[in-house]
Amino acid sequence: MAISNLVATNVVNFIDYSLVIVVIMTIWYGVKFFMIEGPSKEERQAEREKQGTAIRDWFKDKKEKAKTEAERKKEERQTSAEKKKREHLLNPALGFIVLAEQAAEKLRDDELKTKTAAAVNSAKSQMQTIERNLKSSKRVLRAARLAEKDPQLQEFFLKLYETNQVALKMYEDGIEKAIPSAADRDWDIKVQQFRQSINDFRGFCGLLIITIRKFIHDSNTEFTVPSAPRRKISPPGGSS
Fold first, then answer.
1. Is residue 173 part of a domain?
2. Which of 156, 160, 177 minimizes the C-alpha distance to 96?
3. Which site among 21, 73, 131, 155 is 20 to 30 Å from 170 CA-CA?
């Protein structure tokens, strides 16, 4: 019974102390609330101006980003349209020249394996593919040059056309006129020379292909007309 009274007394004392602490803290925070001054009028005005500036800067930034994005998309559309125009003009010519180069590769690697009239005739069939495609690319390049209004591009297309003519001349002099006959005694030597001429021709076509692809991709008109290797080629001309 004495223990219970002691516990009860301690609990009552603890509650009393707690109430005293609560009262003291309440008085302290009340005094602090009324005694400490809030921000001045000038400080509040400065804070409002700061917030207003932040909001204006945010809207300005959003507006500039939207404008930049719109300009970027406009530029992309314009670039895409210009590239499609270049593709429309020169993709056909590019395709014909690639086909001519591929036919030349097949002529070098797969033909004239035997010294027979049939082998020569098969090689001549590949040669016709080369000539046909080069003449087709010539027509496309001529049309592109005539349709173009820009003087710089007219000059570029003219150079492409003239280079295509040189390729045709290389074909005529180094391939068409140089194919060996099944009756040739020095067949092996002539076949070797014939294949070297094809290599020269393919390298020349490769430079033309690279030039056209660069122009289609990024409107690059940088152009150096390569000289025909190994064989002396007369200036392009005629109506072939």
1. yes
2. 160
3. 155
219, burial (CB in 10 Å: exposed 0-12, middle 13-18, buried 19+):
middle
Confidence tier at 12 by pLDDT (50, 70, 90): low
- Give every CB contact of residue 92 below 8 A, 6+ residues apart in sequence: 136, 137, 140
Spatial contact of 172 and 232, defined as CB atoms under 8 Å apart: no
109: left (phi over 0), alpha (psi -120 to 50) or beta: alpha
Structural domain tally of the chain?
Answer: 1
Residue 3 domain flag: no
Name the CA radius of gyration of the chain, rounded: 44
Place of tokens 């591009």: 153
Does residue 50 sit within a domain?
no
- Cα 12 to the center of its chain, rounded Å: 86
Residue located via tokens 């349209």:
81
Range of the domain at 141: 89-218
Query: Is 152 a domain residue?
Result: yes
Q: Using one digit for the tens of pLDDT, what is the confidence trace for 144-180? A: 999 999 999 999 999 999 999 999 999 999 999 999 9
In whole angstroms, give the CA distance from residue 164 to residue 233: 13
Question: What digits encode the pLDDT tens for the residues 187-218?
Answer: 999 999 999 999 999 999 999 999 999 999 98
